[in-house]
User: What shape does this take?
Amino acid sequence: MLGESLMRSVYTLLLLAAGIYVLLAVLLYLFQNRMVFLPDMPGRALVATPRDAGFSFEEVSIATSDGLQLHGWFVPAKKSKATLLFLHGNAGNISHRLDSIAIFRELGLDTLIIDYRGYGRSEGSPGEKGTYLDAQAAWDYLVSDRGVEPGRIVIFGRSLGGAIAAWLAAENTAAAVIIESCFSSALDMARRLYPFMPTRLITRLKYPVSDYVGRLNIPVLVIHSHDDEIMPFSMGQALFEAAAEPKAMLELSGDHNYGFLLNRDRYSAGLQEFIDRHLPR
Assistant: This one.
């Protein structure tokens, strides 16, 4: 009797564990967008504008091909040498990127920065396909509405924005692309975060960044910190290895979100060297 009771208890525990495992897999599958896209962290409201940093700027509204309006800023540099299209990470909005805009202005880069759908003042709800449509709309705005030559546009993406930048650069011929603190693919990230789950089956977001980078035929700069606690340095190395020449890698120290500020002089110099090399005056 004791043996049968023990077996039933073990069987019950196994069923319970299996049920919890399946439930977790289902939740991860269903709520991926909410876990990845974080427009409300730390808050959706804009907390500042370039004017607060002493920069002149234009508010822009950009229509997407599926009928949404995106909000963004066009921030001119005093002595413009090119235009940078800035695609930010998965949390916050354009008002949290003034430090980066300041660096780009110092380098002589006009900057267009947009909020993806569902972020800041942009309409809609975020998703992988939507971020691609948003990036393409921003590119079309620069080329068609502002008359910027594609050969004078540098596409820049940080973190999740690096994945979107890689896609955009694979679909359009820019002067160069800069990918900072990015993952090699969404599946690789899922495997890192949930090694015990059937990630290939439950990962709906793809973002195959290495594949996009492998398709590029323009100069590529990969920027990554050895101390990145979110996107391991090995993922930056994978992106660099996937890229064809001409390519360069700028190695930083510091964490995922602030490494570029902790290494500001080295960071700015690396950007300057890359841009001067690949964008003729």
